[in-house]
Amino acid sequence: MGDHPTIPLDFTELPEGEMRARALGFYEAMKTRRTVRDFSDRDVPREIIEHAILTAGTAPSGANHQPWFFSVIGRGPLRKTLREAAEAEERAFYEGKAGAEWLEALGPLGTDADKPFLETAPWLIAVFAQRRGGPKPGDNRKNYYVSESVGIACGLLLTSLHQAGLATLTHTPNPMGFLTELCGRPENEKPVMLIVVGYPADGARVPLHAIHKKPLDQICGFIE
Length: 224
Ligand code: IYR
Prior knowledge:
Layout: H1 16-30, H2 46-56, E1 68-73, H3 78-97, H4 100-106, H5 117-120, E2 123-130, E3 132-133, E4 141-142, H6 146-163, E5 167-171, H7 178-182, E6 189-198, H8 216-219
Antiparallel strand pairs: 1-2, 2-6, 3-4, 5-6
The structure holds 3-iodo-tyrosine.
């Protein structure tokens, strides 16, 4: 390690009982998150979204370049255009572009080309990955591990919104190049996903299929 400025780590150790209780409690809280596709039009305060994005911005990233940008779309006129653009792509997708294997995999989710939530939900967050940038505004350096970094940031964003008591949907219109233009983002940013945020509609239902999460022995192996 070269000579670089450092500060003392701010770290509070937890008693083991509390550590255990927090780990279990957080798992219990997170396993209640479901992807919601049926949204209410109720408002959600902007401050909640801002804090969720600040949380996303705490994600680790390649060389701390923080290669993400979140375009937050409220209830303005952009909504209708965005829905039309997304549904046009989705129609082509569901009418065959996806291919039989992909459509079969989506069968149990019951998704189709209609995306009313793009107009109903109070907030949409378009996530962009920056191929170039750097740690400071105006930098134009190469970014590293961009997909990994943005993926982690999206995970933190969804986690923050869930624990704030909101419903979320990771929507991936395919392809989603139209988001670049609609959100006025530069060409070197790649749209990654659209996160829909709000309250679930009264009586919202979710697919039974996705309730099954793989057990520990299928997703984890210990080498001790
Ligand atoms: N983008 C489409 C299709 C879709 C694809 C996957 I993989 C999903 O897990 C869910 C949907 C849509 O949003 O309907």
